[in-house]
Request: fold
Amino acid sequence: MFILVQADDYTAYHALLGQMYRLRKKVFHDDLGWDVGIRGDAEIDSYDDLKPAYLLWTNDSADVLIGSLRLMPTMGPTLLNDVFRATYPDGMDLCHPRIWEGTRMCVDMDRLPEIHPGMSGQTAMCLMLLALGECALANGIETLVSNYEPHMRRIYQKSGAELDEIGRSDTFGKRPVCCGLFRVDEEVLGRMRKALALQGVALTPFRDPAPHGRRRWMARNSGGVMAHAA
Amino acid sequence: MARMEGSARLRKISALLDDSRSTQEIVYAVRDEYGLAHTVFHLGQTAVGRLDRPFVRTTYPESWVSRYLLMSYVDIDPVAVEGFQRQLPFDWRDLKVSDKAAALMREAAEHAIGLSGFSVPVIDRLARRSLFSVTSMMDGDAWSAFLAGNADELVEIASRLHHCGLREAVGDEASLPPLRPREIECLMWTARGKDYQDIAQILGLSGHTVRSYLKSARYKLNCSSLPQAVARAFQVKLIADE
Reply:
């Protein structure tokens, strides 16, 4: 299940957010070797202090985190704008209410097989990208600025995404990091839904039970969840 | 291109935002143009904390504003409390309403504040936040339909009101970031009569990316339309005639 958590819900999702910070440390600090700020066993930086929105991917009972990403408006301070402005004087610095930034996108590859048996890591990343797109579309966002590893570009494009690479940085860690502009509209998302459906993966939007139900997306993959539902 | 220009009423509000220095005038104009019950602009926080004196401009009746201030309702009003926490625009139907807040909402109803509401949080590069809210006597499906058609324009207005309010409240003229080379390049080609598809071909980018650069350029120049942004770019010598 995908849940969008904003600052007014941080307390309610305290435990999942804790899992998120620890997962980010494991992925970005331990595995990718990025120069990121560590607070104890958690990776938290100054952008997290600005009350960003997080998209959390959890199991059906919403107590185990599978993946997460951070969503911020480009009108405010954002990581990629700051990094690319510092690294490249000619780099981009987008600023518009309908252009948002998605960063720290990661999947817990150790947890993935228990929750979605048979789903590959690459499919999981494409599913997260689709969930980000769905969430953006539902909130009036037209464009996403996001970072990814060079080899993911072709994989995202094969999954129906439309992106232009507008920057590349070697300052993150061991491997270069690309910065891309992703188009968000019905046409692109339609292509992504179809491409993922061919791999047996689907996202279904629903609302939490009233009152004040939040919009969420249920993830299904025919490998594991069918058996789970039976 | 028509989409970037928005509706006739958005153009009217934008023209006002270009000329007017009065946030109060804009909140009234938005209410009247969009047929709303009320509008409120609330500059809530600076980078370090709340403003000493909150800057609020609203069409709410004086009686409700006095009551609101007297009772310190800003601390329990779910719109203000959640609005300054959130980053994404929200329909008031999505608010969590405590018992205290429910009493406040009932009292607001007695002042004919409206049956429905929609709020747009705005943040700028110095992490200063504002909140622009509108209310309506519509509810249910009629309100949903109104938002489906107008939310995008209200978001656009909110982001420009933020700068209008800052200018009035703290005399800030320089809160928008400078344009980057790609944005200037796209403006220059626009000035030479190219549309975004031509520019995409020239620069080897997708049409969507070129539109994103142009939107960002327009926003940074605080302009409501692309032709206006081009004119402004000439004026401040970002681009020049060949």
